[in-house]
Write a structure and sequence with these properties.
- The chain has 206 residues and is mainly alpha-helical.
- It has one domain.
- Helix content is 72%, strand content 0%.
- It contains nine helices and no strands.
- The protein has helices at 2-10, 16-43, 47-51, 54-83, 91-106, 116-133, 149-155, 167-188, 191-203.
- Helix 2 (16-43) packs across helix 5 (91-106), helix 4 (54-83) packs parallel to helix 6 and helix 4 (54-83) runs antiparallel to helix 7 (149-155).
Length: 206
């Protein structure tokens, strides 16, 4: 057990590219896991029929994209809150570094034509969202306001009449994956060393 603890302790990354990839991966996981798990439970044994239906498939893909975009902003907000205590008086600089990381990793995405407007809007909205969060003390994963919640409920391809009373469980699943993301972030990265690397990258962009 001591060896395992040492191994885990020394495996923490401080590379900004690793951090960006992690946040992007987790944002995708939060969205896909929350949406797909719920839909699979609801359709049950009819999964093949539902998922093979063109109308359901189109609605599902729209939901996945909408929640994906919001979840990406949520994990960036989680990262900002985690790192902010190490940036006293430099909160705006931290914000700018995170926005740059986010834009770089999202540039690799190719949204469908129908999602391009939302894609562009989500990128444009992130700086203001993070700035608004910086007006208050950093949130933990348990209390962070989640942008993904609204599009999740608005676009789930299961009619609202079929979801009565299930709101708490849907929100709970989303929150659980955000909490898991924070735990993975804390295990996988050294916030002090990562902050140093972000500052260096800001002074010497590749």
């Amino acid at each position: 057990m001591r060896f395992l603890r040492r191994l885990l302790r020394h495996s923490n990354s401080h590379e900004h590219n690793d951090f960006a990839a992690f946040l992007h991966r987790q944002g995708a996981f939060v969205a896909q896991k929350t949406v797909l798990d719920y839909c699979r439970v609801k359709v049950g044994r009819n999964e093949k029929e539902f998922f093979g239906n063109p109308d359901f498939s189109a609605a599902l893909n729209h939901c996945r994209w909408q929640v994906f975009l919001a979840a990406q902003s949520d994990v960036m907000a989680l990262a900002e809150a985690w790192l902010r205590p190490l940036w006293p008086g430099q909160e705006q600089i931290l914000l700018e570094h995170l926005v740059t990381l986010h834009a770089a990793i999202m540039a690799k995405e190719e949204p469908p034509e129908a999602e391009k407007q939302a894609f562009t809007a989500s990128l444009a909205a992130l700086p203001g969202h993070l700035a608004g969060l910086q007006l208050a003390p950093p949130h933990s994963a348990i209390s962070l306001p989640l942008l993904a919640e609204a599009p999740l409920f608005a676009t789930l391809p299961i009619h609202a009449d079929q979801r009565k009373g299930e709101g708490p469980s849907i929100r709970g699943a989303l929150r659980f994956h955000i909490v898991s993301t924070q735990q993975e972030m804390e295990r996988g990265f050294d916030p002090a060393a990562l902050s140093i690397r972000l500052r260096e990258q800001g002074r010497n962009p590749a």
